[in-house]
TrEMBL record:
PROSITE patterns: GNAT
GO molecular function, one term: acyltransferase activity, transferring groups other than amino-acyl groups
Listed name of the protein: N-acetyltransferase domain-containing protein
Gene3D superfamilies: 3.40.630.30
Alphabetical list of PANTHER family matching this protein: GNAT FAMILY, PUTATIVE (AFU_ORTHOLOGUE AFUA_3G00765)-RELATED-RELATED (PTHR43792), N-ACETYLTRANSFERASE DOMAIN-CONTAINING PROTEIN (PTHR43792:SF1)
Domain N-acetyltransferase: 14-193
InterPro entries: Acyl_CoA_acyltransferase, GNAT_dom, N-acetyltransferase
Length: 197
C-alpha cells in the first residue's frame, strides 16, 4: 500500500479520498439501492439525503469517510484528473456508542456498488484502512477525541456473509453477538493489530 498523505491513500487497485460534496451523485447511485442498504438503514430517497450524509463527515472531527475509486493505469493518479472517475464504494469510521458496550468505539462501515462486488475491492479497501488506522487516528481524530479508545470495531448482520468474509479476511475477529434493531442477529468484530499508541 502506498500512503499519499494522511487522508488520501492507495491500495494496489484503489484510491481512497475523503468524501466531498461532488461525490454525492456517485454515492447516491450506491446508497439509493435496496440491495446495498438492505442490511443497514433505509436507502437514500433523494440526493439531498446523500449530501447530508456526506456533510456529516466534513463537519465532524469524530468521523472520517472515503470515496473509493479504481486506479487507472493510464494516469499517474485519479486525483490528477478533473473527472476523478466512477465511485465504486465508500469506507468510513466514526466514534459510536456500541450497544452492550460501556464505552465509545470506532466503528468501521463500508458500502460498495453492486457492479463491483466480488472483485475483492471491499477487502482490499478495509485492509488498507486497517494498515493506516493508527495514522488516521493520531493525525485526524485524536486531537478531538482525547481519552477515547483507539479500538476499531465493525458490526455485521449474521445474514450478511459477504461483509463477514470481508472482516475475517481483514484481520477482524468476532468478539460478541447481539440483537440489533428489529431483532436482527448481529455480530460484533474487533480488529487486531490496530493500536494507535
Ligand atoms: C459487503 C460488501 C461491501 C462486500 O463487497 P465486495 O467488494 O463484494 O467484497 P469482496 O469481494 O472483497 O469480498 C466478499 C467476500 O464474500 C464472499 N461472499 C459474497 N457473497 C457471499 C454470500 N452470499 N455468502 C457467502 N460469501 C459471500 C465473496 O466470495 C468474497 O469472499 P472470497 O474473496 O473469499 O471469495 C458488499 O456486498 C456491499 O456493499 N454490500 C452492501 C453494504 C453492506 O452490507 N455493507 C456492510 C455492512 S456491515
Amino acid at each position: 500500500m502506498e500512503p499519499i498523505s494522511p487522508l488520501v491513500f492507495r491500495t494496489e487497485r484503489l484510491e481512497l479520498r475523503p468524501l466531498v460534496d461532488s461525490d454525492a451523485e456517485g454515492m447516491y447511485d450506491i446508497r439509493s439501492r435496496e440491495e446495498t442498504m438492505k442490511h443497514r438503514k433505509v436507502p437514500d430517497i433523494d440526493i439531498s439525503d446523500t449530501r447530508e450524509w456526506i456533510r456529516a463527515f466534513s463537519t465532524s472531527n469524530l468521523k472520517v469517510g472515503y470515496a473509493v475509486r479504481e486506479i487507472h493505469t493510464d494516469t499517474i493518479s485519479v486525483s490528477d484528473k478533473e473527472d476523478k472517475g466512477r465511485i465504486v464504494g465508500s469506507l468510513y469510521v466514526g466514534l459510536e456508542r456500541i450497544k452492550r458496550a460501556d464505552h465509545l468505539r470506532w466503528e468501521l462501515g463500508y458500502t460498495f456498488h453492486p457492479d463491483f462486488w466480488g472483485k475483492g475491492y471491499a477487502t482490499e479497501a478495509v485492509q488498507g484502512l486497517v494498515k493506516i488506522w493508527s495514522r488516521i487516528y493520531e493525525l485526524v481524530l485524536a486531537p478531538t477525541a482525547l481519552g477515547s479508545t483507539t479500538e476499531l470495531i465493525a458490526i455485521a448482520r449474521k445474514a450478511n456473509k459477504a461483509s463477514i468474509n470481508v472482516l475475517l479476511k481483514s484481520g477482524f475477529v468476532q468478539i460478541g453477538e447481539f440483537l440489533g434493531v428489529y431483532g436482527s442477529e448481529c455480530v460484533l468484530f474487533g480488529a487486531v493489530n490496530t493500536s494507535a499508541t
